[in-house]
Design goal:
The complex is a heterodimer of chains A (153) and B (102). Chain A is built from four helices and five strands, in the order αβαβαβαββ. Chain A has 153 residues and is an alpha/beta fold. The C terminus of chain A is likely disordered. Chain B is 13% helix and 24% strand. Classes of the chains: A alpha/beta (153), B alpha/beta (102).
């Protein structure tokens, strides 16, 4: 998408003014991610995170997510059983627009136990959610109180 | 998660029937359920029934015997229910069967 803004001034103005064109993030490059965040303005964001090599301290995801999580509409996370909990630990802020969540830990090391979803995920409120896909997790329910903040019993 | 309409579990650590039923009670709008190697292996809840009134498709494969969970679910007429089961591995080939002479 950034390439087409380099064609000419007109194209740049047209494309950068359309916030909905800048809402698909992969957080692979910090500068690119910052640009997308800025140009997406207040539009809902779709984030696809693929981190089978782990989450380094300088990962763009860590810098971006506190500012972007309130605009998250769709989140897809793929990691390993070993690093998935490190990633989800950064997802503790409320995500009021979040409708679609997919979190998957690959199973290449069978001896590694499934990670446990933290009850603090998205501040414990998943009420906006429409679609949920979980792979290779331990889902503590209802003891962990992760799944809902609306239980009446 | 009262608004959840689609739910997929894959290779989960074992969940009990009770945990599934608690979850389904809190997700009354579910249309689609997929359980891949994630059905419960224990924990029948005698006499407990949970209605999945909005269910349109349910798919299970692997995991524990699906009836452990299905025995407790009220599934609406017309919903599509697919259950894949792993058949036992056939014994090794012991050569051709003896010919029957006439």
């Amino acid at each position: 998408m950034i390439v087409v803004t380099h064609v000419c001034r007109t194209w740049r103005e047209v494309f950068t003014s359309q916030s909905s064109l800048w809402t698909d993030l992969d957080c692979m490059d910090l500068n690119k991610t910052r640009t997308y965040i800025e140009r997406s303005k207040s539009s809902p964001i779709k984030l696809s995170l693929y981190r089978e090599e782990g989450l380094p301290p300088c990962d763009p995801f860590i810098e971006i997510i506190p500012h972007a999580i309130r605009r998250l509409k769709s989140l897809s996370v793929t990691g390993t059983r070993g690093n998935l909990q490190d990633i989800t630990a950064h997802l503790s802020h409320p995500a009021p627009l979040l409708q679609d969540v997919s979190i998957y830990g690959s199973c290449e090391f069978q001896q590694v136990r499934n990670p446990v979803l933290t009850p603090a995920l998205f501040n414990g409120d998943l009420s906006p959610l429409r679609k949920l896909c979980l792979g290779s997790f331990t889902l503590s329910y209802p003891g962990g109180t992760w799944s809902t903040s609306h239980r009446s019993r | 998660m009262v608004n959840l309409t689609s739910f997929t579990l894959t290779h989960m650590s074992p969940m009990s029937v009770r945990q599934f039923l608690d979850f389904f009670e809190d997700t009354p709008c579910l249309h689609e359920v997929e359980l891949h190697s994630a059905t419960p292996t224990s924990g029948a809840q005698y006499g407990r029934l949970v209605s999945l009134a909005c269910l349109k498709t349910m798919y299970t494969t692997g995991g524990g015997p699906p009836f452990l969970l299905l025995d407790h679910l009220l599934i609406p007429f017309g919903a599509c229910l697919t259950i894949e089961v792993d058949l036992p591995t056939p014994p090794p080939d012991r050569g051709p069967s003896p010919q029957v002479s006439r």
